[in-house]
């Protein structure tokens, strides 16, 4: 069985402030959480300390990530935004920043320009005492280039997104490539690729066991790498996702939704793997 803390990412919902979400997370039984860059990190830090929750990570902004690979007027602003995120994490004692290597399905080639751009960001993280966890998303070549370029950097590692593995990576075993450098996880479910081509809406971020993920296999692979870190759920609650996934999360009372997520997380952590 998996050991370690069970966490949940702040859920995008205008009705419930992030600090109030933390109180609901704590009441449900969660031990940890992560936030998005742009959430009020200072207020979340104070609430986390008050509640006894681990502030596990910040998710970096990602809409400009392609500009780190190909020169444009957005390249420098994109780098500065990532550096600012790292500074925010350092100031508020958040140990990990999760980053997307790329965004978009028009994948070309990873470039030396891109590696040099990320070098500035990686150096900033080292100076700040913050870890970077690069996440498996669309454009696997970009992740591969970064993991290879910074393999000697102890503060650079991997964030395994179970849902992205199913849709963006078409069920490839991403842990077999980077499990030895696993810093954190984004646990979620989906229905795989549901049309002729992958779309962002295939990335449903369902509660575990509400999609088609083989969770026994997922837990077995985590155990093979001896992972004892936090199991962090990254979920999305919206009518658009409900229509695509056949769920009714948006209709649920928020605390009931969080409780359902917690119970799924506990079930996942309790899976026993054959031979272990």
List the defining traits of the structure above.
single chain; alpha/beta; TIM Barrel; 39% helix; 14% strand
Please provide a written account of the structure.
It is a single chain. The protein has 276 residues and is α/β, with parallel strands linked by helices. The protein has one domain: Divalent-metal-dependent TIM barrel enzymes (TIM Barrel). The chain is 39% helix and 14% strand. It has 10 helices and 8 strands. It has helices spanning 18-28, 41-51, 75-91, 112-128, 140-149, 162-166, 175-178, 215-224, 239-245, 254-269, and strands at residues 6-9, 32-36, 54-59, 96-99, 131-135, 156-161, 182-186, 231-233. Strands 7-6-5-4-3-2-1-8 form an 8-stranded parallel beta sheet. Helix 1 runs parallel beside helix 2 and helix 3 (75-91) packs parallel to helix 4. The chain is globular. The termini are close together. The model has no long low-confidence stretch (mean pLDDT 96).
Radius of gyration: 18 Å
Major β-sheet profile: 8 strands, parallel
The beta-strand count equals 8
Q: Examine the secondary-structure arrangement and name the CATH architecture.
A: Alpha-Beta Barrel
Structural domains: how many: 1
Gap from first CA to last CA = 8 Å
CATH topology: TIM Barrel
Give the SSE string.
EHEHEHEHEHEHHEHEHH
Shape by Cα distribution: globular
Record the SSE blueprint.
Elements: E1 6-9, H1 18-28, E2 32-36, H2 41-51, E3 54-59, H3 75-91, E4 96-99, H4 112-128, E5 131-135, H5 140-149, E6 156-161, H6 162-166, H7 175-178, E7 182-186, H8 215-224, E8 231-233, H9 239-245, H10 254-269
């Amino acid at each position: 069985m998996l050991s370690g803390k069970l966490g949940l990412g702040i859920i995008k919902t205008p009705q419930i402030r992030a600090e109030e979400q933390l109180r609901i997370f704590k009441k449900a039984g969660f031990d940890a959480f992560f936030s998005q860059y742009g959430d009020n990190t200072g207020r979340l830090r104070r609430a986390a300390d008050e509640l006894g929750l681990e502030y596990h990570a910040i998710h970096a902004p990602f809409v400009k990530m392609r500009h780190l690979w190909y020169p444009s007027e957005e390249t420098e602003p994109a780098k500065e935004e990532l550096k600012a995120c790292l500074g925010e994490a350092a100031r508020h004692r958040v140990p990990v920043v999760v980053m997307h290597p790329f965004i978009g399905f028009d994948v070309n080639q990873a470039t030396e320009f891109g590696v040099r751009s990320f070098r500035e960001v990686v150096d900033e993280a080292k100076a700040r005492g913050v870890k970077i966890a690069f996440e498996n998303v669309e454009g696997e070549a970009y992740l591969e280039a970064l993991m290879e370029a910074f393999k000697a950097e102890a503060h650079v590692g991997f964030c395994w997104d179970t849902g992205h593995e199913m849709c963006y990576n078409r069920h490839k075993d991403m842990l077999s490539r980077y499990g030895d450098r696993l810093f954190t996880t984004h646990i979620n479910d989906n229905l795989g690729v549901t049309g002729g081509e992958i779309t962002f809406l295939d990335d449903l971020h369902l509660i575990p066991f509400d999609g088609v993920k083989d969770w026994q296999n997922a837990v077995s692979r985590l155990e093979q790498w001896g992972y004892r870190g936090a199991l962090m759920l990254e979920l999305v609650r919206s009518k658009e996702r409900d229509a695509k996934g056949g769920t009714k999360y948006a209709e649920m009372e928020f605390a009931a939704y969080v409780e359902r997520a917690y119970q799924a997380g506990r079930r996942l952590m309790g899976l026993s793997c054959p031979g272990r």
